[in-house]
Amino acid sequence: MSELFAEDQVESFADCVSDEERKQRLSVLLVNTLIWIVLIIAVVATLGTVLIFALMGKVIQILLAEYNVRRLQAFGCTVSERQFPTVLRAANDVCDRFGIDNRYRIILIPSGELNAFAIKFAKKKVVVILSELLEAVIESPDELRALLAHELCHTVLDHGWRHTFEIYKPMRYAAGRELTCDNAGLVASGNLEATKSLLKKLCVGKRLSKLVNETALIVESEQIYRGLTVWLLRQYLSHPPAGARIKNIETFYEELTED
Known about the structure:
Number of strands: 4
Mean pLDDT: 87
Radius of gyration: 19 Å
Distance between the termini: 22 Å
Oligomer: single chain
Order of helices and strands: HHEHEEEHHHHHHHHH
Strand content: 5-15%
Largest sheet: 4 strands, mixed
Helix content: 55-70%
Strand order of the largest sheet: 1-2-4-3
């Protein structure tokens, strides 16, 4: 596994938080604190009736969790020592790098789209990789680790204690979280160019990614976030433009290598 950054520089996903996410954290904290105060008042005012319904919903989620996981498995296959061991080893590398004790189920499903995502059913956490994306990165260990670290970062930050507390998550905050997960991917890959290659593949696909002009992508992202529509875009874009994501990991790389 490539080690671009020392472990004392980046010990966990918390050390990968993007500037954009950090800017949103205070407002998200304040709004969610207010929401929880209202919920507590509602529980007291209804003599616990609201809490009973919430607990019933939680029990149903737990009962259906394994069913939902196995339904995903039925569409494809689960990564194991016998099935795509390269992916399993890369995932274990990422978990070891960031000190993650739990090993998540990684399920590969067929699709014509180029993507991956992390999902949680009650306490069961799953990383789903769509087949075309795995085909695009499986021969590049650094890109594979970058992809897995990105998704595992989501499982830790999106589906951990923050997931329970943060009822309110504006899209600008979600976009900042994507940049955070990209940073984690860079650390896990230990390779700036490989991480940028992954982002380009997510943008235009495997075959065209080598033809992409990075500078033009970055300029385009700056244009997207300029003008009268910028406020509206930030309310609805859960993922930043590809150029903004590339610029972000370049900046993160420079910050860490300067230390």
